[in-house]
Specification:
The complex is a heterodimer of chains A (about 1300) and B (about 150). Chain A is of the alpha+beta class and about 1300 residues long. Chain A contains 34 helices and 39 strands. Classes of the chains: A alpha+beta (about 1300), B mainly beta (about 150). β1 of chain A pairs antiparallel with β7 of chain B, so a sheet runs across the interface.
């Protein structure tokens, strides 16, 4: 393809131009083969477009961008320091714990080293200062200030700046004069110059006057000091101020300069004033014009007003004029005053004289030396005393790391100069994360034997600091100690004037103060085997708290996290680094600082590194914080108790506004608010106790939180065992074994981890086996009614059991007789809060499992006997016989509960009696030794088996080691003993160190001390039964509910009385202390009982001649059991504790009636303390308990309130029927209740015949069914729940009447025993 | 305000020279990002597969961010460690490592979050980490960000 002719490519009528020849730079064309060029040219021409071609007929193209020589961009060969790679040894990573290095980890002990170099301590005031010292200190301070200012030379700097500005202004003025049409910019610049000159002048004047003030102060003080020395006739400070005067060589020139200065200033001022005057004048003329106009308008309006008043026709009225009339015309503006230049001149002169050295005055240079000789033997005895006191005084420092003393320096004499050089380096090997570093300054011998002068907190250095690269830091300290002396020492904290004869008569208060010079740095590793010298032994900085570091040395440190510059720091930095403000390069910097500080304080005082970033933002950070949905999600993530397991809605508007109210209230909760909560002292006390426990619980929960995070392998991995030969073999053998279906073997259930539980339903299975000694009906005939009911009346009782949990209840079928057998499985599903089945949430379930035993009564309603053949019309009634309450936590911790339980039954059950009584009355008493016959048991027993399906893993005990208040050897001894016990009798748990309410562990024996029980009855000494009764009426909460993770806290006796709640151990401790006071030999017994699992009892020993009998006290119920009683709820005996020792049961047997209780037998009872180590002395209990009498009136009020509430509840529950009250019966019941309470104190038979006698009158006319319920007072809900559970309200008989009486017996300290007597009455026909 | 929810798992690693591996992970987001719930960093367990070339961690990642802008989008940062085997760069380090263990680590690990200097780092591929992450976005379309 040939080339395209040149003329085709040019625009018609254009000549060919060669730009290169015309001298323009064209550059190299890209080398393209001519074939391709031709092809392209043809194609473009075919399109008819000539614009692609230049004037030279070539295609317009850019010059060849390629270089001829290959070029490599400069890459620095040396490795960038931040890209450095270092070899790290294989390590075991540290836990984020209080300890950086786990204690006992020997290999890494010297990993972190803090070095504290204490150089010297210099006092700026000390109580042993004499007056001369005080003055000398002042001179020194002033001199330091003076020399600092002299070095800075601020005055000279400002003078230079002023000069420069003046020159600039003058030259600008000159320019303006030459060119009258000045641009706006230039005028502005002039304005700015003027303003700046004014500012600089002001500054210079201020600096100058400060300088002169300082100088004169210094000289005056020095004169005072000299005078004082003369006056007292001796010198005790070595201070000497040398004054050098320098007279000017050319006084005339000085005067000239001075005059020049004055002239310049006056000129400037005149100009400024003129300008000001002009503006004021302008303003004045404007104001005047306005004023005149208004006056005129007013006159007119007045005139119009008058005419209107005459006419009174015109109703319309111009509002404007009216307004104008109302407004006063105002003062006539005054013209501005002219400035008197004479005054200005004198002002200027005065200002200059104040701040600058006038001509003729010599320049003064000062020098402070310490060359003055001190008089060794002053004549004044006071001074001599002072000096001996100073000589005696020694000083040393103690260093505290994380509030623990780590080392202390040698004693150093204080010396007459009050400057102690300590010069000691303290290397501190640290094992804990740094929190605080404190230096304490101690003094010895001077004034007191030994005392603390001051404490100084030192900041931790940044992790790169070593002694080589850190400078000496001065830390000021002071103390507010008050001291006065009889000798010449001035003391401290007192008001005094050091030299009243001198010029300065100011009275000041001086406190001990001074400066500590020290260095703090991290150690450097010098002798590492691997040869990595110089490793800084600092803990990784990012893990410990960010300290506020003094960061004015580094510009980057001034940027805070968001890249915002801290202007204050910047200014500080600018001052210390002495940037030249005249340097144009710094102009913008100073402009920034000035503006940020002075004028534009409303503007944000920071700048952003990336100002355009904000353009891209969706919203502000505050919006993110303010969004309630996000906040909710975040709080839920933080596991705040109010939001745990909450379902957060998707839209913000679906969140109720008061969502955070409870949470915020909790955060801002204080005790003072609580006081206003309730006026009732009884309620208040309980509320307070609850709130306090809640607080402790929250704290403990937080502590436990970490521990609960530790998961075990089986929590995460569910692994089936791979069958091997052994298991396979066993299965084969099983096939060959004879089948014995009647003797099934127990199969271990597989424990299920919480992860797997999530999907399934968790069920509680209750197998009700049988009951015995169920009370039987007394008046059988009344139940049946007609003759046909005869077959029912044969049956003395028809009991059934109802089980309820979390509001759901199921019941067994009805059995018959006093010893019924059901053998029935009941299932209840367990609902965990928020569907979370982790141990943490399961153990916080506070629900109880209730089992109630009822008697089912069939009432025949058939009126007509003729229909009996064909019809059945009956009503079922139920009478409550007893109940059992098992907290879910007990079930959870024990994983199954089985045994025979004593039901809680009321002391009197109207209409029922025990079969055993029956027998007794019929003369069927068992003959024999009276000692062997046990008192008839007033109880019903129920055999149960309860478990959870699928089996849940009980939580691991909390094993975090806590701080102990015991000595280390004691702690070690107890731990050793405990581990030995665990080896010998592994399942018997003992307690040696328990946690008190402050979270520290204490030896248990310290909890025992005889304590006086309260007086329950005036004039009557308290018996053991009364004490037990008192203890049992303190409300009980299960320890596991209160403090999850088997983390139990023991309360001392005053705490339990104060909080009015505690778990069984706390009750037992209290009871044990009481019994010890009453002269019993008592122990706290830890063991396993039913139904609560692990419980605490009190064991007492009674000696009657040669018979030794042991008794067990249940502190929660207040019951006393003989050790021989096989129905005692205590099942296993683990250990005994009293104030002297801890004994663990090492016998084969652990059933109480088979255990030998002689603790002196070492083979039966193994003590913790023996000859080598004795039990710690000193009790944590108070010396005596203080009892406060409960207010009778408040009790009475509460009693009335409960009665009313219960009556209301009764009516509410019986929705369909009318509820009638039998007033007569109520009156009788009220009379009966106090007697019941008193009976319990004497352990008398409760269903005494007098009781029945009292009711005889009613029993004759009515069929009565009822019982008293007794429970400690916790709150109203507990009482109503207890009454509802008895099912009294189920009586549907149309002519039923109810009787309800409440009695509260007040014990001291607001402990209340509540008795509720409830009965239903049906008139006998 | 837009929200991002990252949910998924670090499945495991393959093709590493050693197989007893564990992984330290972290999510690094810019200043305008706020963690609403979930953990920002963590460490997996050590898995030593007996057979099979893949080390399984199956470590959950579940983190919810709220943001005021798209700058500083979260970055996942993974560090794979192994229990111990040998093989290093310089002779001296190899020597040290042979006897004492350990390995090269960056002095400033934060460096790798920004691309400015990262390209200069000479690295070597060690293996593949398998991730399965679901990214749930909310409200981004409100602010004109299409995804």
């Amino acid at each position: 393809m040939g080339p395209v002719p040149l003329e085709d490519k040019l625009k018609p009528g254009h000549e060919v131009r060669y730009l290169e020849e015309e001298g323009l730079h064209v550059g190299n064309h890209l080398a393209v083969t001519s074939r391709n060029t031709n092809k392209l040219e043809r194609r473009l021409l075919a399109g008819g477009d000539r614009k692609w071609f230049g004037d030279d007929g070539e295609i317009i193209s850019l010059p060849d961008p390629c270089r001829l020589v290959p070029f490599h961009p400069p890459v620095c060969d040396e490795v960038n320091s931040i890209l450095d790679v270092e070899y790290k040894l294989a390590t075991i990573s540290d836990f984020e714990n209080k300890y950086i290095v786990q204690p006992g980890d020997i290999g890494v002990e010297d990993r972190y080293l803090l070095e504290v170099d204490i150089c010297s301590v210099t006092f700026s005031h000390h109580p042993l200062f004499s007056r001369e010292h005080v003055l000398a200190q002042r001179v020194t301070e002033l001199y330091l200030k003076y020399s600092e200012r002299a070095v800075l030379g601020q005055g000279q700097r400002l003078a230079g700046r002023l000069e420069a500005l003046r020159i600039a202004r003058d030259s600008l003025k000159k320019v303006l004069k030459q060119a009258p049409d000045a641009s706006q910019q230039q005028l502005e610049r002039l304005q700015r110059y003027v303003a700046e000159i004014r500012e600089t002048r002001r500054l210079r004047q201020m600096e100058g006057s400060n300088d002169r003030q300082l100088l004169s102060n210094l000289l005056l003080t020095w004169r005072d000091l000299k005078k004082l020395r003369e006056l007292q006739g001796y010198t005790s400070t070595p201070l000497r101020l040398q004054i050098h005067k320098e007279f000017s060589d050319d006084p005339a020139a000085e005067i000239r300069a001075w005059d020049e200065e004055i002239r310049k200033e006056i000129d400037e001022l005149e100009e400024e004033y003129q300008e000001e005057y002009n503006t004021q004048l302008d303003e004045y003329s404007k104001k005047l014009a306005v004023w005149k106009k208004r006056r005129k308008a007013m006159h007119e309006a007045k005139r119009r007003h008058q005419s209107k008043a005459e006419q009174r026709i015109e109703r319309e009225f111009d509002e404007e004029t009216e307004l104008e009339i109302m407004e006063p015309s105002g003062e006539e503006p005054k013209p501005p005053a002219k400035v008197n230049m004479g005054v200005v001149r004198s002002e200027v002169m005065e200002g200059l004289f104040q701040s600058f050295r006038p001509p003729g005055e010599p320049k003064v240079y000062l020098e402070l030396t310490t060359s003055e000789a001190i008089d060794q033997n002053p004549g004044c005895p006071n001074e001599q005393q002072r000096r001996t006191a100073v000589k005696r005084c020694d000083l040393y420092v103690k260093i505290f790391y994380n509030q623990k003393e780590v080392c202390s320096s040698h004693l150093q004499p204080l010396g007459p100069r009050f400057s102690v050089s300590i010069g000691q380096l303290f290397p501190i090997r640290i094992l804990q994360w740094p929190e605080s570093l404190k230096v304490e300054l101690h003094e010895e011998g001077g004034t007191f034997a030994h005392h603390l002068v001051a404490e100084i907190y030192l900041p931790f250095p940044s992790s790169g600091t070593t002694l080589q690269n850190c400078s000496l830091e001065h830390h000021e300290f002071s103390s507010n100690q008050v001291l006065t002396f009889s000798h010449a020492g001035v003391g401290c904290g007192t008001y005094l004037c050091p030299f009243p004869e001198g010029s300065n008569k100011e009275v000041t208060c001086l406190y001990t103060s001074g400066v500590l010079a020290c260095r703090v740095a991290w150690g450097v590793d010098n002798n590492k085997h691997g040869g990595r010298d110089g490793k800084i032994l600092a803990p990784p900085e990012k893990y410990w708290t960010k300290e506020q570091r003094d960061s004015c040395t580094d510009l980057m440190a001034m940027l805070d996290e968001e890249g915002v510059m801290d202007i204050e720091k910047l200014r500080e930095w600018a001052e210390t680094s002495q940037l030249d403000p005249n340097d144009p390069r710094n102009a913008s910097f100073f402009y920034l600082i000035k503006n940020a500080g002075v004028g534009f304080s409303t503007e944000p005082n920071y700048f952003r590194l990336d100002p355009l970033q904000a353009e891209f933002d969706f919203c502000k950070m505050d919006d993110l914080v303010a969004n309630s949905r996000l906040r909710l999600l975040q709080l839920r993530d933080q596991r705040e108790p109010e939001f745990r397991g909450l379902c957060v809605p998707l839209r913000e508007k679906e969140i109720p506004k008061d969502m955070f109210k409870v949470y915020e209230k909790r955060l801002t909760y204080t005790d003072s608010q609580l006081e206003s909560l309730s006026s009732d002292p009884l309620e208040l006390h309980r509320d307070w106790g609850q709130k306090f426990l809640q607080k402790v619980r929250q704290r403990v929960l937080k502590q436990c939180h970490l521990a609960q995070q530790h998961r075990q392998l089986q929590d995460i991995v569910m692994e089936d065992q791979v069958p091997d030969i052994g298991t396979l073999g066993l299965t084969f053998i099983k096939w060959l074994q004879p089948k014995r279906p009647l003797r099934p073997t127990r199969k271990e259930r597989k424990k299920i981890t919480m992860q797997n539980v999530a999907g399934q339903e968790v069920k509680i299975i209750v197998n009700v086996i049988h009951a015995f000694e169920v009370p039987v009906r007394k008046d059988v005939d009344a139940v049946g009614g007609g003759q046909q009911a005869f077959r029912f009346s044969m049956v003395p009782v028809r009991p059934f059991v109802e089980v309820s949990f979390q509001g759901v209840s199921v019941r067994t079928t009805t059995a018959e007789g006093a010893n019924p057998t059901w053998n029935q499985d009941l299932q209840l599903s367990l609902k965990s809060p928020s569907g979370d089945y982790s141990p943490g949430s399961l153990q916080s379930i506070q629900d109880n499992l209730y089992l109630h035993l009822f008697d089912e009564i069939v009432v025949d309603l058939l009126e007509d006997d003729r229909m009996r053949e064909t019809n059945i019309h009956q009503r079922l009634e139920r009478n409550w016989l007893g109940s059992l309450q098992i907290p879910f936590s007990t079930l959870y911790f024990n994983s199954r509960i089985e045994g025979t339980f004593k039901l809680y039954s009321p002391p009197v059950l109207l209409g029922y009696e025990k079969e055993s009584h029956h027998r007794e009355f019929s003369g069927l008493t068992i003959l024999g030794d009276t000692q062997q016959v046990l008192p008839p048991r007033d109880a019903t027993f129920l055999s149960l088996f309860i478990t959870v399906q699928p089996a849940l893993n009980p939580p691991e005990p909390f094993k975090e080691k806590l701080e102990s208040s015991e000595l280390a050897f004691m702690e070690e001894h107890l731990e050793n003993w405990e581990s030995q016990v665990a080896k010998q009798v592994p399942h018997r748990k003992v307690k040696t160190l328990v946690i008190d309410i402050s979270g520290k562990s204490v030896c248990v024996t310290r909890f025992f001390q005889p304590l006086a029980p309260p007086v329950l009855l005036e004039g009557e000494s308290i018996t053991e039964e009364m004490a037990a009764r008192f203890v049992s009426k303190i409300p009980k909460i299960s320890g596991s509910i209160l403090f999850p993770g088997l983390f139990d806290i023991w309360l001392t006796s005053d705490q339990i009385l104060h909080l009015l709640s505690g778990d069984s151990e706390d009750h037992a401790v209290l009871l044990c202390c009481f019994l010890m006071y009453l002269g019993k030999t008592a122990w706290l017994l830890l063991g396993v009982g039913i139904p609560h699992g692990r419980t605490a009892y009190v064991l007492t020993r009674e000696k009657e001649q040669h018979n030794i009998s042991y008794w067990l006290w249940d502190p929660v119920s207040g019951q006393k059991y003989s050790i021989q009683d096989s129905f005692c709820p205590l099942q296993k005996v683990f250990c005994l504790i009293n104030d002297e020792n801890i004994w663990v049961n090492v016998q084969q047997e652990e059933l109480p009636w088979r255990t030998r209780f002689d603790i002196t037998h070492r083979s039966d009872w193994w003590p913790a303390f023996g000859r080598s180590v004795g039990a710690p002395v000193g009790s944590v209990q108070p010396a005596a308990l203080v009892y406060v009498a409960t207010s009778i009136s408040a009790t009475q009020m509460l009693q009335d309130r409960i009665e009313k509430q219960l009556k209301d509840c009764l009516m509410k529950w019986r929705k369909t029927a009318r509820t009638l009250c039998n007033r007569y019966c109520i009156a009788i019941l009220r009379k009966l209740l106090p007697a019941l309470e008193h009976n319990t104190w004497n352990c008398q038979n409760l269903s005494s015949p007098d009781h029945i006698q009292e009711l005889q009158h009613i029993l004759g006319s009515h069929k009565m069914c009822g019982f008293p319920i007794n429970l400690p007072y916790t709150n109203m809900e507990a009482i109503t729940e207890a009454m509802k559970a008895t099912g009294v309200h189920y009586n549907e008989s149309p002519d039923v009447e109810f009787a309800l009486a409440v009695y509260i017996h007040p014990f001291p300290n607001n402990v209340l025993s509540v008795w509720v007597y409830v009965a239903s009455l049906i008139k006998r026909r | 305000m837009a929200e991002v929810h990252l949910i998924g798992q670090i499945i495991g690693a393959s093709k590493f020279p050693n197989q007893s591996l564990f992984c330290k992970w972290g999510i690094h987001a810019g200043g305008g990002w706020k963690v609403i719930s979930g953990l920002k960093e963590g460490q997996t367990q050590v898995d030593s597969p007996a057979c099979d070339g893949i080390t399984y961690w199956c470590h959950p990642v579940d983190i919810h961010f709220a943001t005021k802008g798209i700058q500083g989008w979260p970055k996942l940062h993974l560090q794979v460690y192994h229990l111990d085997q040998f093989g290093r760069s310089t002779l001296r380090d190899q020597f040290v490592q042979y006897f004492l263990g350990g390995g090269p680590q960056l002095k400033n690990p934060d460096l790798i979050y920004s691309g400015n200097d990262r390209y200069r780092l000479q690295t070597e591929t060690m293996g593949v980490v398998h991730l399965e992450l679901g990214v749930v976005l909310r409200n981004f379309d409100k602010y004109g960000v299409e995804c």
